[in-house]
């Protein structure tokens, strides 16, 4: 796919997300996420530490951590898949790459369900991230090992029906927004 088309889609996605972040209550999206996760009790969940104008999944992660393991992604290096390390609400966190916080003490886990941040999405399950390909490599590797559920968490305004997609882009299984759940 044309890198220029993705760059343009990313720029537009950031603008839509920023506007939505100022105007939209994320509570309905978090409620919908909790409802989706109810079918996966006990699974190892990966969330993320929100940066910029991403919807913050911490309330859902904190609830999950009461009964099952929660991990957050750690960037190991350019061109590599993500690693996931145990997170609890009490975990000591340090600054990681790209401004995301990571656990101070590494404790690797392999997630079964992932809450995935994004810049833009399409109803077909396509996801546009920040451009590093970290989640694409990660999901490809996890899916090669077995069943994994990738849930995009976004504002409805981040939808882009004309999202450019490359063959290496890994689709989302579900997208959760403040308007409900999209099942591609």
Automatic annotation (TrEMBL):
GO molecular function: 5-formyltetrahydrofolate cyclo-ligase activity
Annotated EC: 6.3.3.2
UniProt key word ATP-binding: yes
InterPro entries: FTHF_cligase, FTHF_cligase-like_sf, NagB/RpiA_transferase-like
tRNA-binding listed as a keyword: no
Cofactor: Mg(2+)
Broad enzyme group: ligase
Lineage top rank: taxon: Bacteria
Pfam families: 5-FTHF_cyc-lig (PF01812)
Keywords per UniProt: ATP-binding, Ligase, Magnesium, Metal-binding, Nucleotide-binding
Reactions catalysed: (6S)-5-formyl-5,6,7,8-tetrahydrofolate + ATP = (6R)-5,10-methenyltetrahydrofolate + ADP + phosphate
Family: Belongs to the 5-formyltetrahydrofolate cyclo-ligase family.
Protein name (Swiss-Prot/TrEMBL): 5-formyltetrahydrofolate cyclo-ligase
Species whose genome carries this gene: Meridianimarinicoccus marinus
């Amino acid at each position: 796919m044309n890198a220029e088309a993705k760059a343009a889609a990313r720029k537009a996605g950031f603008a839509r997300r920023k506007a939505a972040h100022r105007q939209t209550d994320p509570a309905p999206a978090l409620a919908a996420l909790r409802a989706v996760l109810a079918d996966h009790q006990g699974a190892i969940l990966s969330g993320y530490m929100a940066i910029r104008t991403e919807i913050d999944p911490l309330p859902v992660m904190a609830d999950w951590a009461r009964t099952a393991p929660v991990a957050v992604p750690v960037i190991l290096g350019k061109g590599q898949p993500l690693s996931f390390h145990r997170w609890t609400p009490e975990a000591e966190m340090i600054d990681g790459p790209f401004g995301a916080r990571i656990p101070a003490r590494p404790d690797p886990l392999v997630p079964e369900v992932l809450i995935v941040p994004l810049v833009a999405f399409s109803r077909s399950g396509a996801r546009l991230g920040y451009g590093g390909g970290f989640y694409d490599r990660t999901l490809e590797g996890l899916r090669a090992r077995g069943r994994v559920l990738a849930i995009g968490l976004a504002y409805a305004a981040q939808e882009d029906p004309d999202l450019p997609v490359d063959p290496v882009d890994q689709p989302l299984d579900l997208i959760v927004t403040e308007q409900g759940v999209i099942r591609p």
